[in-house]
Amino acid sequence: MTILTKSRTFSARAAFAGALALAVPLGAAITLAPAPAAAASPEMLDTAISALRSISTMTADFTQTDAKGQTVSGEMTLKRPGKIRFEYEKSAKMLIVSTGKSLYLIDYAVNQVQRWPIKNSPLGALLDPGRDVQKYSTLVPTSTNDVIGVEVRDPKHPEYGVITLIFQRDSTAPGGFELVSWVALDSQNNRTTVRLKNQRYGVAVPDSTFRFKDPRRSGRRP
Question: Has this prediction a pTM greater than 0.85?
Fold first, then answer.
């Protein structure tokens, strides 16, 4: 299944994978590579998790790039616990929403809706950091103490893929570190990156933000 944009074909599967992953901001020179031991101290994992738990609501602009270099943009809205919305540019005719229990991919180009449970997945831990995030997380060494990399995977469910979250030191962000991007690898090792900018915290977000019009039944909401 594909999504047609103005000048390219964008994979809906890649869009879903991107909703599960993070990457480095455009233009940033951050390396996920061997680093000094101090940059990989266990306390850094606690710091990253604390930064996640400090977010009550968040909005951000995002760009998402698949393994072929095709890019689509939009706006992300997050609300704890468990709710997220990826509003893609209109030409993509696509929406991804988590209601707290399930993740939905709504493909308006072909009037289809796909649903995945999130309760027992790494995504569930990320959307609700009150859960035992350490159960799924491993610290990834980086090239600077100002950046934290966290790899999230469930070894019992390799089909969920792998997410590497990137946090950058920012005194204005909740917890002192800002979630700036992620990289996702699916079970077929396809790579999708999502970059965030213009992060805004503590904004009023009504629960209705995480409802959607089901194209299969006019007016139906989850």
Answer: no
